[in-house]
Design brief:
Elements (H helix, E strand, L loop, with lengths): L8 E6 L1 E8 L17 E7 H11 L7 E3 L16 E11 L8 E12 L21 E6 L23 E6 L7 H8 L4 E6 H6 L10 H14 L20 E2 L3 E2 L2 E2 L8 E6 L3 E6 L16 E8 L7 H5 L7 H14 L6 H18 L14 H8 L19 E4 L31 H6 L3 H14 L1 H4 L6 E3 L2 E3 L2 H19 L7 E6 L6 H13 L5 E5 L5 H16 L5 E5 L13 H6 L1 E4 L2 E4 L4 E5 L6 H4 L11 H6 L2 H7 L2 E4 L25 H7 L3 H16 L15 H9 L7 H10 L16 H5 L5 H5 L6 H22 L13 H8 L2 H6 L15 H12 L1 H7 L2 E5 L15 H21 L3 E2 L9 E2 L10 H20 L2 E5 L7
Parallel strand pairs: 1-4, 1-7, 2-5, 7-8, 8-9, 9-13, 19-24, 19-25, 20-21, 21-24, 27-28
Antiparallel strand pairs: 2-3, 5-6, 10-15, 11-12, 13-14, 14-15, 15-16, 17-18, 22-23, 26-29
Length: 972
């Protein structure tokens, strides 16, 4: 790793505050003069004082750092009339994480507010240790306590004579057009602003508490495109609010740069302890990039933890702490000075991980003395992490816990994800650039790539195959579908809010829709297990089997559970059967929390109603009275009090299941509507994620019925690729997930160690559940021996090219030599001697670790998708008489296309992992000189892509396959 730059001058200024921590005794006290078991009051220097300490910690407390800031009084004082601002908070014991009541730490239970000194008190600002006019970095902490509004407190660096190299501003408010922000605007090209998304919300920005990372990315991009962050001030007229796509335009007001965030060099927005967005005017990394700042701000990256959402860390670790923005700001200061060995992804990732660790530690373990700075050591270990450090997860780079949504301009234009447009209904169209599709970023923007990822999900499991994709996991329920993630997380929020609100005694009513076998009850029940644990009172009633009298009895059971102090979760299955006549019977219980029985009205008590539909597959269609057969139904729906029922629902969940769904919620219901339902092909095009949903269900079924097929160490499932693709390619499953489980369960696997087509049940039994599965079995597919050959060829060609390019082999290797000759060469003693024994990848394929061989297999499984992208397909040689590409001489146009496809696959993987362009590659720092457009990759490095492409043809030909042009009907 590169050494630090020479000593730099850093000045930290801003609001100062004495943090007064009041410690609530864990032991109940009997009278006011009873002795406390420990100290009840602790003081800490906060604000700019604390931020200066964080900067020192971020640099590893290096002695040569020239760091100055506000003078710190000694001792700190907390008293009435103090010249310093004082902020008060109460600390008490909390579970270190939910479900672990014995492990407790100190965290904040309540903020009591801030006591400010008199605004004209000269002692209110302590002055600086040193006040250079040209520091390398000026750091400003704006807590809204008067510093920004009092020019006499400002450092010399902000005066007309000042010239700081860079300015980092930590703030909790948007620029207000005052003198302070006007001065910063004059130096906008040097300014980085750091703030939390909560500050934007408090200022009025329409940014919701995100239900998915995709939604968070979309909303913050739109905010910077035309929201408050991009307007000159809060009173900007409507003409300034237009949406401009990914690019955030810098505007001028009266001939001058507007006072807003988008005029600055960079803005970083923190999303809880789990994510951060950055926008910049710096150009996109490239060997040919002009380093001058652009006139407009662009989306740079968004770090996220794929397994959680913003706020999840605090929800799982109750209580409050503060200082996350200071930790983030300190890391950005180090990035500003030492960007070459502390790049932005490292800075943001480590800062978020350090802030999360700080919250986890709090003020130390509850059974020890309260330490207000108890997490400082842990923060330092993470921010200043180095190889060999024990910080992070199992000694790994702390930032590696995060993935990064990236600016798609980094990809060659032909590979950038296209906006989703629905041809049947313009209401479904999404503005280009505003749509976030993290699952597509991971899998690739084509059906073939999505299919390859789906096969990988079955073989490796969703945790491994979808590691970089956001997921919602509740016990056994797992989904990577964005809409399902958002809806089930919304339902979770509803339930948690309802449970905590003791004054809300009406039933919380939620509807769940989906095709038969989609897993409606499965999703809610697994969510309930996570939220309530094993002690949840659960009641289930199937309304298709009940009479009116039975309903009163059911309500009585609900009331009994509520009286016992439980919060019953009540499933009303098939509530929309019997012509939807049941709807009116639930109006009074849902609205008034009471039911009629035994000649009178009875209170229900607090409970959760879950209505599971059986006729409509989506809430949007049910809500307008659209029956499943497509006949007019709106008028009858009104007569049955359907709209009244809908108005009493507080939320809903659409569970899609394994079949592709069309964007039918956008289709209006009109009397006499006889529109033709969309075909399977149309739905599959509109909903490519159905392949991933199928894959998760199929993997679960294999693990349930034949657990011996899943390796307990690697998680690999032993199954035929052709069989898996047939399951995934088949038409609609008649009974959803139940059909997939039924087919797998009926398979005669027994003690066999491999699942293949010969073990499927009888054809008639399969057709009970699905059409098309058997037909797809006859399509040519690459089975394990061919995949293994392609994986070996891929690694072999890469290894020979790498050793040849490095000059380790004499003479250099010609990759156009015969395939078998190259494979023999790779295992020769000469190649073995040339390999670096310290590099685990520089070994013949047979000697690689299993994890590295699996990485080559993943590349091999993408072969069909790569060729499809270039307009070709794989076919058995015996079926092809002409028009094929031989192993020796594929067309140059095809090769060029494949080289670009190969580079795009590599690029997406690196960008998701947080890599960025740098002329000096350092993989440990997520820097690589090839993270740029293919045409700008050094010629000698393009050979790696060419080597992998070249390996395809020989490996396929060895097993009797050829590459042929795709016919028109092949395109799906």
């Amino acid at each position: 790793m590169a050494s630090h730059a020479p000593s730099a001058t850093i000045v930290v200024v801003g609001d100062t505050v004495v943090d007064v921590s009041l410690i609530r005794s864990p032991v109940p006290l009997s009278y006011h003069a009873q002795a406390l078991p420990s100290s009840a009051l602790k003081l800490r220097a906060g604000g700019a004082w604390f931020l200066r300490d964080m900067v020192r910690v971020a640099f590893g407390n290096v002695s040569e750092l020239d760091l100055s800031g506000p003078k710190k009084p000694d001792p700190l004082c907390a008293c009435e009339g103090s010249e310093s601002a004082q902020a008060f908070q109460v600390w008490q014991h909390f579970e270190k994480s939910t479900g672990k009541p014995k492990d407790r730490v100190w965290r904040i239970s309540e903020f009591l507010g801030c006591q400010r000194p008199a605004p004209d008190d000269e002692r209110a600002y302590p002055g600086l240790d040193a006040d250079p006019s040209k520091p390398h970095v000026l750091v400003i902490d704006d807590l809204g306590l008067g510093f920004t509004g009092t020019p006499r407190w400002w450092p010399t660096a902000l005066s007309a004579a000042g010239d700081p190299g860079a300015i980092i501003v930590k703030t909790g408010s948007l620029p207000d057009g005052g003198e302070f922000w006007t001065r910063l605007t004059e130096m906008a090209d040097k300014v980085t602003v750091v703030m939390s998304v909560d500050s934007l919300r408090q200022a009025g920005a329409p940014i919701s508490t995100p239900l998915s990372w995709d939604k968070a990315i979309e909303e913050i991009k739109r905010e910077f495109a035309g929201g408050l962050a991009a307007r000159p001030d809060a009173s900007a007229d409507s003409e300034s609010t237009g949406y401009h796509g990914d690019e955030v335009h810098k505007g001028f007001v009266g001939g001058m740069v507007g006072d807003r965030l988008t005029c600055f060099k960079r803005v970083v927005i923190r999303f809880g302890l789990e994510g951060a967005a950055s926008f910049t005017r710096l150009p996109l990394g490239s060997p040919k990039a002009d380093r001058n700042l652009s006139e407009s701000m662009r989306f740079e990256r968004f770090l996220y933890r794929p397994d959680v959402l913003p706020g999840d860390s605090r929800a799982r670790m109750p209580g409050t702490t503060f200082g996350a923005n200071s930790v983030l700001t300190a890391a950005i200061v180090r990035h500003e000075l030492h960007g070459s060995d502390y790049p932005l992804f490292i800075a943001l990732g480590r800062a978020l991980e350090a802030a999360r660790a700080s919250h986890e530690v709090g003020a130390g373990d509850a059974d020890r003395e309260f330490r207000v700075d108890g997490s400082l050591e842990r923060i330092g270990e993470i921010l200043a992490w180095d190889e060999g450090s024990s910080a992070g997860d199992a000694g790994l780079e702390p930032a590696a816990a995060f993935c990064s949504a990236f600016d798609h301009e980094a990809q060659d234009e032909e590979f950038r994800p296209k906006p989703i447009n629905n041809a049947r209904d313009d209401k479904c169209r999404i503005a280009p650039g505003s749509r976030s599709r993290l699952l597509v970023d991971l899998a690739g923007d084509s059906r073939e790539f999505m299919m390859a990822k789906a096969v990988e999900v079955v073989l490796r499991g969703p945790d491994e195959a979808l590691a970089a994709a956001p997921k919602a996991t509740y016990e056994k329920y797992v989904t990577a579908d964005r809409e399902e993630i958002e809806r089930i997380n919304a339902v979770r929020n509803l339930i948690e809010t309802y449970r905590e609100n003791s004054s809300d005694n009406r039933p919380l009513s939620i509807a769940v829709f989906g095709p038969p076998g989609a897993g409606k009850s499965f999703a809610i029940k697994n969510l309930a297990k996570v939220l309530f644990g094993p002690g949840q009172a659960k009641l289930e009633f199937n309304l298709s089997q009940m009479t009116k009298d039975d309903l009163a009895t059911a309500f009585q059971h609900v009331r009994d559970a509520s009286i016992r102090g439980l919060l019953p979760l009540v499933f009303w299955d098939e509530f929309d059967t019997d012509g939807q006549t049941w709807l009116q019977d639930f109006l009074a219980p849902m609205q008034d929390a009471e039911f009629q029985g035994g000649g009178g009205m009875h209170p229900l008590g607090k409970c959760i109603f879950v209505f599971a539909g059986s006729t409509c597959h989506q809430f949007e269609r049910f809500a307008v009275g659209f029956p499943p057969d497509g006949t007019p139904g709106s008028k009858r729906f009104v007569e049955l009090k359907g709209p009244d029922f809908v108005s009493r629902l507080r939320g809903y969940l659409n569970v899609k299941g394994p079949n592709p769904q069309y964007c039918s919620p956008c289709v209006p219901v009109e009397e006499g509507d006889t529109s033709t339902p969309p075909s399977f092909r149309e739905r599959a095009k509109d909903d490519p994620e159905y392949l991933i949903r199928r894959a998760i269900i199929l993997r679960s079924a294999i693990a349930e019925f034949f657990p011996h097929l899943v390796d307990t160490k690697t998680g690999q499932a032993a199954a035929s690729t052709a069989l898996l693709k047939a399951f995934l390619e088949a038409g609609d499953y008649a009974h959803g997930a139940r059909s997939i489980s039924a087919i797998v369960g009926m398979s005669s696997v027994g003690n066999a160690q491999y699942y293949n087509a010969t073990q499927l049940p009888a054809e008639d039994f399969i057709r009970m559940h699905v059409d098309g599965l058997l037909e797809h079995l006859y399509e040519p597919e690459l089975e394990l021996p061919v995949i293994e050959e392609l994986a070996k060829a891929c690694h072999t060609y890469w290894l020979l090219d790498k050793l040849s390019s490095a000059g380790e082999l004499r003479p250099t290797v010609d990759l156009n030599q015969g395939y078998q000759k190259l494979c023999d060469m790779a295992t020769s003693q000469g190649v073995r001697d040339a390999c670096d024994p310290q590099d685990a990848l520089q070994q013949p394929y047979e000697e690689l670790r299993e994890a590295h061989r699996e990485a080559s297999r993943i590349t091999a499984r993408l072969t069909a998708a790569k060729l499809a992208q270039a307009g070709y397909r794989i076919a058995p040689g015996s079926r092809v008489s002409r028009g094929h590409l031989s192993a020796a001489g594929p067309d140059d146009d095809v090769l060029r296309k494949l080289y670009r496809v190969e580079h795009d696959i590599w690029m997406r993987d690196r960008l998701l992992k947080g890599f960025e362009y740098c002329k000096d590659t350092d993989k440990a720092l997520f820097l690589h000189e090839d993270v740029t457009w293919f045409d700008e990759v050094p010629e000698e490095h393009r050979s790696y892509d060419k080597a992998i492409v070249a390996s395809i043809f020989g490996a396929l030909q060895k097993h009797g396959y050829l590459v042929v042009p795709r016919e028109k009907h092949d395109t799906k």
